TrEMBL record:
Assigned keywords, A-Z: Membrane, Transmembrane, Transmembrane helix
Origin superkingdom: Bacteria
Domain EAL: 527-779
GO molecular function (one): cyclic-guanylate-specific phosphodiesterase activity
GGDEF domain residues: 388-522
Protein's organism: Clostridium gasigenes
TM region(s), chain numbering: 16-35, 278-300
Taxonomic classification: Bacteria, Bacillati, Bacillota, Clostridia, Eubacteriales
Protein name in the entry: Diguanylate cyclase (GGDEF) domain-containing protein
């Protein structure tokens, strides 16, 4: 069923509401059930305490049976003493008239009665019910009875009674010594009543309990569900089952037979009654809950659901944009849905207002009112569909970032607006449109035949127009621009590629000093190809470190080297000027600098092992490499790993790498020097070089650029400049290294003007590690 269908919405909402009520009912049932279980457990908790008392009553009954058997053993023992005398004096017939013991025995509730000698060997079986005197259990009973009778306390009184256990059965045994005049040895009356099923049935009938006698089982004591209770001077083991309670207690026995336990199983009447009553109550509550939920569901369906469906239908129309004039009618109810209806009407009113501006916002840059990238892409697609040629001019303002960062975004935004105003004058020609695609980047599209002369004239006119002084808040700023041009369809039929090619051409203009334009050509893709290959080169270890020796004038020795990276490609060796700028742009420079660092430290380790403790290697550190959060820890870790002192490593930095954030860099360089690593200021005499930086930066050595040494042997002014720079550096307690020395005459002059160290092709070009080691050994 479709979402737009009213019936479909009713069904979906009804299902959700029904699901909520079913969930509530289920949760309520679970809670009621849990509560009922809790009440039942509390109500029946006392059952566990009553069990031992009932078991003890059974034990008392059994003890009564033991006393009875003991009394019978005494009685018949004494009778046998009397009958023996009467038999001797008057004869058996007269004795039977006086005392008929046989009749007494027959009537007595005795299972087995024996007459045994002093060694408890059977002399006579007075009464025997399935009794085998040769049975091991019978012999075991008699042996235990003998040992018990021989105990001091029993020997004196001549009788005992109690329970004797065997492997097969427990028995109630009564023993009485028969004292006769004619017998040299004592005889004994032994009564044995087995505690068997018949005995237990009688006890169960008398006590009204369910009793069993079981042999000792370790599981009784080890079962975690069994609770031990000590009452009436004995230990009871209580196990609470779902429908019953089991009570175990040891059957006190004489002799050394195995232990037996009395087990009483009692029904949980309190629990069963409570369960029945509470279950009925919970059932009634659950039925009432279901009825209430059904009634509430019907109410919501009638009073709420219809109004929600109406709101949803109106919102759908507004969402689809078919009717932005629609409004919800207020209903008679004063509730949350009524408030929602009013709020939605307010929102619809605002949407009507915003809708009028949506198309403009979606297609224009709000700062400059120029079209944005989306609209530009639509325009280019339209030109392509109409098979019209056009030229795409990519414009990027030079040094705009410095103005934006130093003077603030407000000034930057105002400057962008003024630049846009200058460019808008070209839109008076219907063949030209202008777009701002972001930051300080503008795109100009000029449709028409791509004549190179006309395109160059047009590009020159834009550069001239943009190259002017702009006044903002009583301040003047000079702006220039770099431009790249791509042509359709000459360079590509794809708008993404056209944008990329014009961007590459613009980058070449900026790289060559700015305030220029370049028309794209295939050679410019070389830098893009290099950029794409950079990451694979790092992964495949295609880089190699070369080392150029540094010569110390004062001691005429090679004291160190500068590490310079090279890229070995299939087409030959690539030098840093071809890939380092791109690596800085992509961020891959961090991995390259890390590779050079490790190789340089490794070389130091080798030469320290060869006895050159003062040997050092300097590496060029990029801004991104320096600005890692844990830079100091990284350096220390690598040096420690290869056991190289910090004095063996020098870091070379250039002023253009640190000028963006001088405060941070100064702090970092101080920390670097603090751990013992020397800091060199490289390429001094180019770029932003000034003695103000030398004075403020925490450095140890200044490296004078080779450009200042050209013709120094012939140009007196050049010599004076270099000499002055060396002198000033020495006054600031800084050492000086002159780079790019290629002639002996230059070496001699540098010696005269007190230069400290020299580096250049006069001594050696940069060498791979193996050749450098050979050079150093032979120098």
């Amino acid at each position: 069923m479709k979402n737009s269908s009213k019936g479909g919405y009713i069904i979906k909402l009804m299902r959700k509401i029904a699901l909520i009520f079913i969930t509530v009912t289920i949760i309520s049932s679970i809670l009621y059930y849990a509560l009922g279980k809790k009440i039942i457990n509390v109500a029946s908790s006392g059952e566990l305490d009553r069990g031992p008392g009932r078991t003890n009553a059974v034990i008392k009954q059994i003890e009564g049976e033991i006393k009875k058997i003991t009394s019978q053993a005494r009685e018949f023992g004494e009778n046998f003493e009397i009958t023996d005398k009467i038999d001797n004096e008057y004869g058996v017939e007269e004795r039977k008239r006086i005392i008929n013991i046989e009749k007494k025995i027959e009537k007595a509730s005795i299972t087995n009665m024996l007459i045994v000698n002093n060694n408890f060997e059977v002399n006579d079986i007075i009464k025997g019910t399935n009794l085998d005197i040769n049975n091991i259990d019978t012999q075991d009973i008699l042996n235990q009875a003998k040992d018990i009778m021989n105990k001091k306390e029993n020997k004196g009184k001549g009788f005992f009674g109690g329970v004797i256990t065997t492997k097969e059965l427990s028995n109630i045994v009564g023993v009485k010594r028969i004292n006769t005049e004619n017998s040299k040895d004592n005889t004994y009356t032994v009564i044995i009543n087995p505690i068997n099923e018949v005995f237990m049935e009688n006890i169960n009938e008398i006590t009204g309990r369910n009793i069993e006698i079981i042999k000792d089982n370790e599981s009784i004591k080890n079962d975690k569900k069994i609770k031990k209770v000590t009452l009436y001077g004995r230990d009871f083991y209580c196990k609470l089952n779902e429908e019953s309670i089991d009570i175990f207690t040891k059957f006190e026995s004489l002799g050394n037979g195995p232990e037996y336990y009395i087990k009483l199983r009692d029904d949980r009447q309190v629990r069963n009654n409570a369960t029945k009553n509470i279950s009925t109550l919970i059932g009634i509550i659950m039925i009432l809950t279901i009825i209430c939920n059904v009634l509430l569901y019907i109410f919501i369906k009638i009073k709420v659901l219809a109004r929600i469906i109406n709101i949803n239908n109106v919102v759908n129309k507004v969402t689809k944009g078919t009717d932005l004039e629609i409004e919800l009618q207020n209903d008679i109810y004063n509730d949350e849905i009524s408030v929602l209806t009013g709020d939605l009407n307010k929102m619809f009113g605002r949407l009507k207002k915003y809708a009028n501006n949506l198309e403009y916002i979606g297609s224009h840059d709000l700062l400059t009112s120029l079209i944005n990238r989306n609209k530009l892409t639509e325009y280019i697609s339209e030109l392509k569909n109409n098979n019209e040629e056009f030229a795409l001019f990519f414009i990027d303002l030079d040094n705009f970032k410095n103005i934006n960062d130093t003077l603030g975004h407000n000034v930057g935004d105002e400057l962008l607006c003024q630049v846009a105003k200058e460019l808008k004058e070209y839109t008076e020609n219907e063949n030209v449109i202008i777009s701002r695609i972001g930051g300080d980047e503008f795109i100009v599209v000029r449709k028409g035949k791509n004549n190179n002369d006309e395109i160059e004239r047009f590009a020159n006119s834009m550069l001239i127009k943009l190259n002017k002084i702009y006044s903002i808040k009583n301040y003047s700023y000079e702006i220039k621009a770099s431009m790249g041009i791509s042509l359709y369809p000459q360079h590509s039929a794809d708008e993404v590629s056209l944008m990329q090619y014009s961007d590459i051409a613009m980058y070449h203009s900026k790289k060559n000093g700015g305030n220029k334009y370049n028309i794209f050509n295939k050679k410019m893709l070389e830098s893009l190809e290099i950029e794409n290959k950079l990451k694979n080169a790092i992964r495949n270890e295609e880089f190699e470190v070369y080392y150029q020796p540094i010569y110390c004038i004062s001691n005429n020795k090679i004291i160190g080297a500068e590490a310079l990276v090279r890229w070995k490609t299939e087409d030959g060796m690539l030098y840093p000027d071809k890939f380092i700028p791109l690596a800085k742009k992509t961020g891959d420079i961090v991995d390259i600098d890390m590779f050079v660092l490790r190789q340089a430290i490794s070389l130091c380790r080798e030469w320290i092992d060869k006895g050159k403790d003062q040997f050092y290697v300097s590496i060029n550190a990029s801004k991104r490499f320096l600005k890692q959060n844990n830079f100091i820890e990284i350096i220390e870790k690598e040096l420690k790993y290869q056991n190289v002192p910090t004095s063996a490593l020098k870091l070379e930095i250039t002023e253009d790498e640190i000028i963006d954030d001088a405060e941070y860099t100064e702090k970092l360089l101080k920390e670097i020097r603090k751990i013992g690593i020397g800091v060199y200021l490289d390429d001094f005499g180019t770029g932003y070089s000034s003695f103000n930086h030398i004075k403020t930066l925490p450095i140890d050595v200044v490296k004078i650029d080779r450009s200042l040494l050209i013709n120094i042997e012939e140009d007196i002014e050049a010599k004076s400049i270099v000499e002055t720079m060396i002198s000033l550096c020495h006054k600031l307690k800084l050492k000086v290294v002159c780079e790019g020395v290629e002639e002996l005459a230059q070496v001699e002059i540098l010696k005269q003007i007190n230069c400290d160290d020299i580096q250049g092709y006069y001594f050696s070009k940069p060498l791979p590690k193996q050749l450098f080691n050979k050079f150093l050994e032979e120098f």
